[in-house]
Design brief:
The protein is mainly beta and 117 residues long. 0% of the residues lie in helices and 54% in strands.
């Protein structure tokens, strides 16, 4: 089992910045991908960004150029720095952990990001 704990969400004005953090603990295989999805009620869940250990980050077009995903491998932590936030970025952001060595993917509880206009 892998446990994920997110932090860093909140309320911010349009144009502002937030940094989300997600710490993984438990059976965290060294070969893995960590990333962030976001969910808005009534809309399809969107993959925002992810990064395979040592790989090239992926970003959704909607956040490309405004967001940076990074990892601290020593701390089993993934970060999502979001800049120039827009009201349409408002969502619940969920961290996830996946490994080809594990049959399950794991999810955090989600953190709310609200961007006011």
């Amino acid at each position: 089992q892998v446990q994920l704990v997110e932090s860093g969400g909140g309320l911010v004005q349009a144009g502002g910045s937030l940094r989300l953090s997600c710490v993984a603990s438990g059976r965290t295989f060294s070969v893995n991908t960590m990333g962030w999805y976001r969910q808005v009620p009534g809309k399809q869940r969107e993959l925002v960004a992810n990064i395979h250990n040592g790989g090239t980050p992926y970003y959704a077009e909607s956040v490309k150029g405004r967001s940076t995903i990074s990892r601290d491998y020593a701390k089993n932590t993934v970060y999502l720095q979001m800049n120039s936030l827009k009201p349409e970025d408002t969502a619940v952001y969920c961290c996830y952990f996946a490994s080809p060595l594990d049959t399950k993917n794991y999810w955090g509880q989600g953190t709310q990001v609200t961007v006011s206009s």
